[in-house]
Amino acid sequence: xxxxxxxxxxxxxxxxxxxxxxxxxxxxxxxxxxxxxxxxxxxxxxxxxxxxxxxxxxxxxxxxxxxxxxxxxxxxxxxxxxxxxxxxxxxxxxxxxxxxxxxxxxxxxxxxxxxxxxxxxxxxxxxxxxxxxxxxxxxxxxxxxxxxxxxxxxx
Length: 155
Prior knowledge:
- By secondary structure, the protein is α+β, with helices and mostly antiparallel strands.
- It has 5 helices and 6 strands; from the N terminus they run ββαβααβαβαβ.
- α2 packs across α3.
């Protein structure tokens, strides 16, 4: 699932709650282990968002467009600007429940100990940074520190 490949119509996942955030149950054990390891290393790390329905994604995008329009942009410019960092409904990895945002998704997150810790340890738990800085031409998405659980076991 990405800006060019929509979520398949027949995609199904089993949701589970991680604290108050819905995620795909496939990654729950690894996500729990990752958060616990960060805590043990005295790293303040939390899941800010996880699974998002298509309707929720529409709402996220609409709110971002409305904020930009309130700042004086036309609808077209506001939509285009919002789409730099927000996937269109039906095209977000959050629909799979396998993508999570840690702490926040602001660019300054990259300057935190939590981000550095994730860079060093996320892969140990099956997670990768989905939109790394400098790879926009490959990911076709603006650089964002969104962490995705890779289904390494194909289960």
